[in-house]
């Protein structure tokens, strides 16, 4: 029994340090932390300008909660959205700052519109029209 208690205490301490190392991002932070400039090379794409607070998080571990979206028939393109699919960015509710790409090491088992908390490395995309402005690499997701 003593060994089990010690193990549980050690695990809780370890988990506590892991959570403290990550910044919890709210969708309001992502929406307020971006503005756009025209891109002369690609007129339909607006180049992102990120606030210093977001630039400071580039390459850092973050946690974001949102709705899981699958974009293609092969189920290999994943997004996290502020809103469920029926009212997401693609349906006119919100801008491109209300979605983020998810890059998992393994194919996730979640389905469309599952509410998730996702942790991983934040990457900001200012100028590549083939990707979202926000991306989470090494994504690990937990259903709520």
How are the SSEs ordered, and which strands pair?
Blueprint: H1 2-20, E1 23-24, H2 27-32, E2 34-38, E3 46-50, H3 52-55, E4 61-70, E5 78-81, E6 99-104, E7 115-124, E8 134-143
Parallel strand pairs: 1-4, 6-8
Antiparallel strand pairs: 2-3, 4-5, 4-7, 5-6, 7-8
Signal peptide: 1-21
Keywords: Signal
Organism: Flagellimonas algicola
The name of the CATH superfamily reads Protein of unknown function (DUF3299)
**Which percent bin holds the helix content?**
10-25%
Oligomer: single chain
Q: What's the shape?
A: globular
Q: How many helices in DSSP terms? A: 3
Low-confidence stretches: 1-19
Give a brief description.
By secondary structure, the chain is an alpha+beta fold. It is built from 3 helices and 8 strands. The two termini are 31 Å apart.
């Amino acid at each position: 029994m003593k060994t089990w208690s010690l193990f549980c205490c050690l695990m809780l301490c370890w988990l506590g340090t892991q959570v403290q190392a990550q910044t919890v991002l709210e969708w309001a932070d992502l929406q307020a932390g971006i503005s756009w400039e025209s891109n002369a090379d690609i007129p339909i794409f607006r180049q992102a300008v990120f606030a210093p607070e977001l630039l400071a998080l580039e390459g850092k571990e973050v946690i974001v909660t949102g709705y899981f979206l699958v974009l293609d028939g092969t189920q290999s393109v994943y997004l996290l959205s502020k809103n469920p699919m029926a009212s997401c960015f693609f349906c006119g509710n919100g801008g491109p700052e209300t979605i983020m790409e998810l890059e998992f090491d393994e194919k996730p088992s979640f389905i469309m519109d599952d509410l998730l908390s996702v942790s991983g490395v934040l990457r900001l995309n200012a100028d590549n029209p083939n990707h979202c402005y926000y991306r989470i690499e090494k994504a690990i997701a937990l259903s709520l």
